[in-house]
Design brief:
The structure is a single chain. The chain is mostly helical and 117 residues long. The protein has one domain. The protein is 76% helix and 0% strand. Helix 1 packs antiparallel against helix 2 and helix 3 runs antiparallel to helix 5. The model has no long low-confidence stretch (mean pLDDT 92).
């Protein structure tokens, strides 16, 4: 759980000055140093980044009364603006999970550990 919290916090700090893909930097580092197994690394990475992107998406949605998400949902012919938020969380979670998993597997390759996925 510490991995998810640190990942969300560091991704938030980096997002203030770098683009969205900067979440890969703490994902790789934290996955390397704090990852215990492959599944745990992926799930905590998914939870950390997905949770952060959920909070950020909800803030943006509520700050402008859903205007932006409603227009994007109309653009993609989706019935609800909440589906845009759901897709955002899934994409962010997958990006976070895969970067922490990559960090964990990198640690296994470097130190010749045969960890389980």
């Amino acid at each position: 759980m510490l991995l998810a919290f640190l990942l969300a916090l560091s991704a938030w700090l980096l997002s203030l000055i770098l683009p969205w893909w900067s979440l890969a930097i703490p994902g790789l580092l934290l996955g390397t140093f704090l990852g215990k197994t492959g599944w745990r690394s992926f799930s905590y990475g998914f939870l950390g980044i997905g949770g952060w992107w959920l909070a950020q998406s909800l803030y943006i949605h509520l700050a402008n009364d859903g205007l932006l998400t409603t227009r994007i949902a109309d653009l993609f012919s989706l019935p609800s603006a909440w589906l845009i938020i759901l897709f955002t969380v899934i994409i962010g979670g997958l990006a976070g999970g895969l970067t922490t998993l990559t960090g964990y597997l990198f640690k296994n390759v470097i130190f010749n550990n045969r960890g389980e996925l």
